[in-house]
């Protein structure tokens, strides 16, 4: 995918989150059930990089499961969602919280390494197969020896209720296979770019990280299967 198309798709999603940040926060407060599978692999003290952290609910989930003291670094390209994260995490006194406006399309990931690096519900917003593979390599570089990288990809295209939201692309945009434009049906009428990561691509993403996959599962949503997870470990 060329840079012009990738930036156009990224701009679609920037506008999407700017328009629906409050509605998104109002409907995205609960922890994902799939996160519970991470708990046996985690222990405090814990340094976490949460990429695409949104309203910070994964940080709150860790604190509520007593994984403190906790150093939590959340990054997202939506300042409005980070404002919600800041308010939600302020009540957890045993957390050292850093929230940063950062777009993985344009910006480098933070320096340093972490016990846990997460990418939940973000990969479907990354335009271009090459960029998605590169992001996995960059994420892996942020993992400490012995640390973990947790990935969850939204499998929306497998469900009729999400396929019903697909709208046609404009004729002048050249997208890749499994790229879709979905409408939003709460509050403002806006569109979002979403890529469907199928089994073959998911395996390629895991391979690109160069880490050992120690567990994989499906969880979340009404069916308990809408996200596909992989948990990867860097060797000591």
What does this structure look like?
There is one protein chain. The chain is α/β, with parallel strands linked by helices and 236 residues long. The mean pLDDT is 95. α1 (3-27) runs parallel beside α3 (79-89) and α4 (129-141) packs parallel to α6 (199-209). The protein has a single domain (3-233), classed as 3-Layer(aba) Sandwich (Rossmann fold), CATH 3.40.50.150. The chain contains 6 helices and 10 strands, in the order αβαβαββαβαβββαββ. β9 (212-219) and β10 form a beta hairpin.
Task: Spell out the blueprint of helices and strands.
Elements: H1 3-27, E1 46-51, H2 57-64, E2 70-76, H3 79-89, E3 95-101, E4 114-120, H4 129-141, E5 143-154, H5 160-163, E6 166-167, E7 179-183, E8 191-195, H6 199-209, E9 212-219, E10 227-233
Parallel strand pairs: 1-2, 1-4, 2-3, 4-5
Antiparallel strand pairs: 5-10, 6-7, 7-8, 9-10
Helix pairs in contact: 1-3, 4-6
State the order of secondary-structure elements, H for helix, E for strand.
HEHEHEEHEHEEEHEE
Helix-strand category: alpha/beta
Please state the CA-atom Rg, rounded to the nearest Å.
17 Å
By CATH, the topology is Rossmann fold
The DSSP helix count reads 6
Name given to the CATH homologous superfamily? Vaccinia Virus protein VP39
- The portion of residues forming beta strands comes to 25-35%
Gist of the model:
The protein has 236 residues and is an alpha/beta fold. Helices cover 31% and strands 28% of the residues. It has a single domain, classed as 3-Layer(aba) Sandwich (Rossmann fold), CATH 3.40.50.
